[in-house]
Amino acid sequence: MIVAVPGPVTIALVLLQLVAVVAAWFAWPAVAAVVVTVLAVITVVLELPRWRWLASR
User: Fold this and answer.
1) Number of domains, the chain
2) Which terminal Cβ of the chain has fewer Cβ within 10 Å, N or C?
3) Which pTM does this prediction carry?
4) What is the pLDDT of residues 20-57, one digit of tens each?
5) What's the Rg (C-alpha) of the chain?
6) CB neighbours of 33 closer than 8 A, spacing ≥ 6?
């Protein structure tokens, strides 16, 4: 099910997922945690223009 939420909520949900990156360092082997961290950084970089747009609405 997909539920539409306001822009700030969307941004907060993505930031909450980034908290999981920290948990990966405690729960998984270092190699897996590095992969998750790199993917999270890429996600943030690619999401910035969208976040700016969502925040301006």
Assistant:
1) 1
2) N
3) 0.72
4) 899 999 999 999 999 999 998 898 899 889 888 888 87
5) 13
6) 21, 24, 25
